[in-house]
Amino acid sequence: MEDKVQKPIIEVSLERELDLVIAYKKAMQLAEISGLNFTEQTKFATAVSEICRNALVHARGGMVGFYISKDGGQYYVEAVVNDAGPGIEKLAELLNRISNLPEGQRTGIYNCKRLSDKFEIDSTEGSGTCVRIGRRLPANHPPINHIILSGWRKHFSQLSPASPYDELKRQNHLLLKTLEELKQSKAQVQEQLEEIQSLNSELEENNSKLTKLSKDYAQQNELLLKRNEELDEFAHIVSHDLKGPIRNLKGLVQLLEQGRGKSQQEIISMFRGQFQKMESLIENILTYSRTGHEEMDKKEVDLNKMLHELTEGLSMPDTFRIEIEQDFPLVYTEEIFIFQVFSNLLINAIKYNDKQEGRVKLGFEQMENGELFYYVEDNGLGIPEEKRDKVFKMFAVLHKVEGVDSTGIGLSIVKKIVQEKGGRIWIEDPKHWKEGSRFCFTWPAEIVL
Amino acid sequence: MDRIPILKMGHFLLVTIQVDMYDRLALNLENDLINAVQAHESKGVLIDISAVSIVDSFMGRIIGNIATMSKIMDAQTVVVGMQPAVAITLVELGLPLAGVYTALNVEKGMELLQQKITEEAEFDIGEAEEDDDQPE
User: Fold this and answer.
1) What is the number of CB-based contacts under 8 A between chain A and chain B?
2) N or C: which terminus of chain A carries fewer CB neighbours within 10 A?
3) Closest CB from B55, B88, B94 relative to A104
4) How close does chain B come to A199, measured CA to CA in Å?
5) In CATH, what number is assigned to the domain containing residue B64?
6) Average pLDDT for B81-107
């Protein structure tokens, strides 16, 4: 009981006049329950009322708490009034002055002192005042322990309200408390939400990174598979096609061994022919495998000028005409590659033309999505629709033409270049003639205005 | 704003405080009573505080004020029904309510008021008679 930091049995906040009524009523109730007689109860309650009024008038409010304390073997019922007002300057002087005033003019503090068995006042300027008033309980009072005190606390918390105002105040207090709790839990929830959001965004980021990575892997895998396939095909074709001239050479050697037929001169020239064929095959294979891998500097290319130079340098029959339909744009790209594409397509168009008057038209059109595509259209033999994909494969020769030496690599080189540069290539029916083919390709490049 | 009812009974005003007194209520009562004394030309005010369990220095001062003001307005004030504990507390507080007549209950209070008024009237008549006796 000696510890002064025990929880108050009742607490009343002093905010307005009506709180004084509650304060002295509670004082009365506590005094009654702790065994003081009616007169003592009244004295104690009056003293409480005096000091609480002081707190309200001079400090604009405060707090009164009621306790039971033990001092020198005696129990006291105590009221502790705290306020956060301006405090009392020169407390001792004030108390002295009050005690010298004639009876009837003394203030609450002094009167209160006379009504209490115990009176302590503590005040520092600027930090409020604390007044402790105590009334001694009868000497024969049975001991009061913590259990009894907590019982009293419970009793007071369940007591019906002293007035409608008391009830209002209690409910208001409860509401405020609940509101505060709500605010706190809301803040907590907000904090958790923010944390979840940040975690979520982190997760999303990681996820998108992973997705991108796996996409990249899939792409690379696909590319690798394609390359593998190509390599297989390449190996197969190379071995197959290179075998041709070797077989021929073998036959020639056999002829020589048997000493049959042909003159030496003839045999040598046949040997030379086969060697040449092998050489050109190997050269083309090398060109194909290098295609598109080299990094070239991009520059402004005047397609018009390039195409004119290209067509002038080509060897073709006198009756053959190449028409450039429009003014081609100026593009920013690697000249050597686009030159190679046009050149191979034109050579093919000249090579595989069976008409008396061979014709080739060069031009470009815009697709629905705004992309440009270039075309090389001829009035040659034409390619049936079902074989159009096949002609781009290596060593695929659709038409055997008399006097034309073809390795079947030209179009595969074209396709490879276009694809390496991010474009597409396809074959359409001709638009200007009944027979022939129209090679179209897109070439992603900035157009210089 | 709450008010404590003031009843007029002949020459007297009757006030019974049945509710918890707080400062504003007490000040209003003080004001209302003085106005009623003037309006009804009352000769006496009877305040019943039998239901009041606490009279602190502020309340004591209010009762004292009412008595003093009434007197100035030519009316007598009697406080009745004070609980013994309140009386003891008032004395210990140093507030003996000087100048306020008290009675044990309403009946005795009424008697006291009547008596006071009669005394005063007699005193007035006596004074007047004395005036008459003076030689011309």
Assistant:
1) 67
2) C
3) B94
4) 59
5) 3.30.750.24
6) 87
Separation CA A235–CA A256 (nearest Å): 31
Whether residue B23 and residue A39 make contact (CB cut-off 8 A), yes or no, is: no
Phi, psi of A319 (to 5 degrees): -80, -10
Other C-beta atoms within 10 Å of B64: how many?
19
CATH code for A10-162? 3.30.565.10
Edge-to-edge strands, sheet with A299-302: A299-302, A330-333, A446-448
Closest residue by Cα to residue A51 from A42, A63, A36, A39: A63
A339 by Cβ neighbours in 10 Å (0-12 / 13-18 / 19+) ranks as middle
> Which chain B residues touch A167 with a CB distance below 8 Å?
none
In a domain, B124, yes or no: yes
CB < 8 Å from A in window 38-77 of B: 53-58
Q: Which run of H or E residues covers position B45?
A: strand B44-48
ipTM of this complex: 0.83
A37: nearest CA partner in chain B? B85
Task: List Cβ neighbours of B34 (8 Å cut-off, separation of 6 or more).
Answer: B66, B69, B70, B73
- Asked whether residue B30 is assigned to any structural domain, the reply reads yes
More confident call, A331 vs A447 = A331
| pLDDT bracket for residue B132 (50, 70, 90) | low
Decide if B56 and A39 are in contact by the 8 Å CB cutoff: no
Kindly determine whether residue B85 and residue A49, on different chains, have CB atoms separated by under 8 Å: no
Query: Looking up tokens 């031009």, which residue turns up?
Result: A363
Is B22 an 8 Å CB contact of chain A?
A: yes
Domain of residue B11 covers 6-133
Q: Do A42 and B24 touch (CB under 8 A)?
A: no
- Residue A433 pLDDT greater than 50, yes or no: yes
* Tokens (6 digits) for B14: 């009757």
Q: How many domains does chain B have?
A: 1
Q: How many CB atoms lie within 10 A of CB A235?
A: 10
CA distances to A237, A322, B122, B123, B131 from B135, rounded to whole Å, are: 168, 165, 22, 21, 9
Q: Confirm if A417 and A442 have CB atoms less than 8 A apart.
A: no
Between A302 and A267, the more confident residue is: A302
Q: Between chains, do B88 and A28 touch, taking CB under 8 Å as contact?
A: no
- Tens digit of pLDDT for each residue in A306-319? 888 888 877 788 88
Q: Average pLDDT for residues B42-54, to the nearest whole number?
A: 91
Q: Considering the domain boundaries, does residue B1 fall inside one?
A: no
Name the residue among B20, B23, B94 with its Cβ closest to that of A111: B94
The distance from CA B133 to its chain's CA centroid, rounded to whole angstroms, is 35
Residue B44 lies inside a defined structural domain of this protein:
yes
Q: Does B99 touch chain A (CB under 8 A)?
A: no
Alpha helices in A259-377 (DSSP H): 264-290, 303-313, 335-351
Instruction: Tell if the CB–CB gap between A39 and B84 is shorter than 8 Å.
Output: yes
Q: In this model, does residue B134 exceed pLDDT 60?
A: no
Instruction: Quickly name the fold that domain A299-447 has.
Output: Heat Shock Protein 90 (3.30.565)
Average pLDDT, whole number, for chain B? Answer: 86
Q: Of A21, A42, A50, which is closest to B20 when you measure between CB atoms?
A: A21
Residue ranges of domains in chain A: 10-162, 166-290, 299-447
DSSP code of A141?
P
Give the distance from residue A157's alpha carbon to the nearest chain B alpha carbon, in angstroms.
Answer: 21
